[in-house]
Amino acid sequence: MMVCRGEWEATWSRKAAEEAETVAAIECSGHGKAYLDGVVLKGHQPGCECHDCYTGSDCSKFLSNCSANAGSGDPYFLEPFWTKHAASSGVLVSGWHRMGYTYSDGSYISQLLLDYLQKLHARVGNAITEGKHIVFGSGSTQLLNAAVYALSPNHSSPAKVVATAPYYPVYRTQTQFFNSRDFSYEGDTSSWINKTDSNYTFIEFVTSPNNPDGKLTKEVLEGDNVKSINDRAYYWPHYTPIPSPADDDLMIFTISKLTGHAGSRFGWAIIKDEAVYEKMLTYLEMNTMGVSREAQLRALKLLDVVLHGDDEKEIFQFAYSTMTNRWKRLKETISKSKRFSLQKLSPQYCTFFKRERDLSPAYAWLKCEREEDKNCYEILEAAGINGRQGSVYSADNHYVRLSLIRSQDDFDILINKLNTLVAKH
Amino acid sequence: MMVCRGEWEATWSRKAAEEAETVAAIECSGHGKAYLDGVVLKGHQPGCECHDCYTGSDCSKFLSNCSANAGSGDPYFLEPFWTKHAASSGVLVSGWHRMGYTYSDGSYISQLLLDYLQKLHARVGNAITEGKHIVFGSGSTQLLNAAVYALSPNHSSPAKVVATAPYYPVYRTQTQFFNSRDFSYEGDTSSWINKTDSNYTFIEFVTSPNNPDGKLTKEVLEGDNVKSINDRAYYWPHYTPIPSPADDDLMIFTISKLTGHAGSRFGWAIIKDEAVYEKMLTYLEMNTMGVSREAQLRALKLLDVVLHGDDEKEIFQFAYSTMTNRWKRLKETISKSKRFSLQKLSPQYCTFFKRERDLSPAYAWLKCEREEDKNCYEILEAAGINGRQGSVYSADNHYVRLSLIRSQDDFDILINKLNTLVAKH
């Protein structure tokens, strides 16, 4: 076909653009995606990777006896936002893009991306960055451990690392795995209230909103020898009211729960104390020599859409609307049964939306109310629903975490299975 | 301008393609680069980032009283290869590319990239991958530490980590920084010959070719309780003859010294023992939840050019020819003086090029021959040459490492400064 355009014509970038569009044109019936680095078929074309419970070369076949995936927190609910913004969110990485170890200022940190993050927090009003330092990590995962190292005293009694159940298990497993002479995991904060011996440094993980239950939380322990690591992964208008900007000494954020790009492994920490900041920089140098330049470039492009789109609130409106809708549907289903209950969250004024907002947590913290239902996970599993056991979060197994941030397919299957389960009782 | 083409036309990818080409068209006089995420000027265009000793908005101004940068191992010498292969090496990352935590097989590892790495090693003949396991890391940096953790016994006497001077300092600094109860850094292998108490596990770092001196090396310690981590970063035809494929129990490679993309933070380890492999996977999960999807996609694209270009040996020929040329020029300069000498390397048959090849090490390991020149670094520094002190590599300060793998500008300035220095004596 002959095409005439009075416009710019691609030269060397044509091949990359064509490859990307060819893969994007593989539709997978809306129940899967084809990726540039996907399964390559005989004809050397990437094929569809289907959502759970869908199969076939174009993902059109539904497997009716398949369990709902409500396990991991893959934030696929934001995918439709990015397919809608295809033109503004794509980024072409040239073969020679930033081959060296550092940016032109000798650091591992893109200054432009840092500026964008500061602008973003100012716009959303969820964190104060003024007068603070920012470091980047390969996901918040890396930063959680970097923070534990940075807050631990060297060559002294090991710091005691604690958290309040129910809590995200990585705090414990990571601290135990790295097994440093400088710190050790010492269980739940409840064991240490009024017992924070001043000969020890305590490092308290505080997750607000909390994973798994979505509650806004605060430090439990008190004292000059208590430092806290504030995991703010879910402190976005997607999931929670923003009563005021967070101003903690050490806050950790991740792009995973903001734009939905868990696979990019990009997070950032906002740090008040300069010495702690320097120790975190040392950790990042020793561990990975900073964060992949490709991940930083992509984060920049995604934040460009978030910050400079036609509608400044668009991604937040999209995320909030999707999540409130899901919570409403879930609540309606669960309310039909006395056997199950959901966590109680209170609506609250949100400074971002400038009104009291509806509930929209990332996870359901479901409880099997009957005393004899000691393993709620198994009850759900038997009904074709895969969540995560309460014990994973150091809580009672009357509880199960159900992920609400996965794809619409996953959520729809979850609701169907729950409706069937609830109807039985 | 009206353009008519009988070809495919970009739709949503046009913006990304145009942005990439616009930035690429900023020429920076051949003494710098403009990047998509570069310094943004008032007109909102990224500007030139100049090579060392060049300045001005287009990097055209040479600073004659500026020191040669022969310090860090940024592999910029490969940049011209990628600008030449602009069309085949660019990759367009869509906004929705791989948002989830895992690939479709539930792992953090792209199977297609893994296949490419196996093909690459088979083609180059520098490592045996058959019957072995491969893990990916955020640069070899992360894998070095993952390997130390994986080889250390748990809940037993800490493993003793050792290396043979001169050695890459990260082995020591990283092991000391993480300060695990499971291992400790115990200095040079020379202190442990015939003293490897079988109550302890020894972990020996072996770098071959060695950084800084380019020599092919082997384990020094012997015994069933000695495990080795073989850092094979430089075991490519760029820098060394390949006498035979490496078949060590644990080998670490990095894209940094293969394609020159240090900033991507992508490395891989080839592991014989399944239990060690599983422990390294656990480390990678606990530390960063795998490697950025963007970095993996880009590595795939770059390896596609390496493997499937018109000329199968092209990148190796390019790298070898650049590096032999640099070594010849350096040798010619240094041979004019008795005050300085270079490491002695022997030409050897290379199974890749199928002939005895010339020398082309990544670094010069320069020695100040006079006894009184106890700080060779300062002598060079006074002559406007910034290398790295011998003591950084746990060697005598009569030695200095000079990086030969930086940009042509850096190398040319280095040779000029050396010629002036040598002419003085």
From TrEMBL, chains A, B:
SUPFAM superfamilies given in the database record: PLP-dependent transferases
Protein name: Uncharacterized protein
InterPro entries reported in the protein's UniProt record: Alliinase_C, Alliinase_N_sf, EGF_alliinase, Ethylene_sulfur-biosynth, PyrdxlP-dep_Trfase, PyrdxlP-dep_Trfase_major, PyrdxlP-dep_Trfase_small
Subunit structure: Homodimer.
PANTHER family in UniProt: BIFUNCTIONAL ASPARTATE AMINOTRANSFERASE AND GLUTAMATE/ASPARTATE-PREPHENATE AMINOTRANSFERASE-RELATED (PTHR43795), TRYPTOPHAN AMINOTRANSFERASE-RELATED PROTEIN 3 (PTHR43795:SF20)
Family: Belongs to the alliinase family.
Domain of life, per lineage: Eukaryota
Record keyword Isomerase present: no
One GO process term, biological-process aspect: amino acid metabolic process
Domain Alliinase C-terminal stretches: 69-422
Gene Ontology molecular function, alphabetical: carbon-sulfur lyase activity; transaminase activity
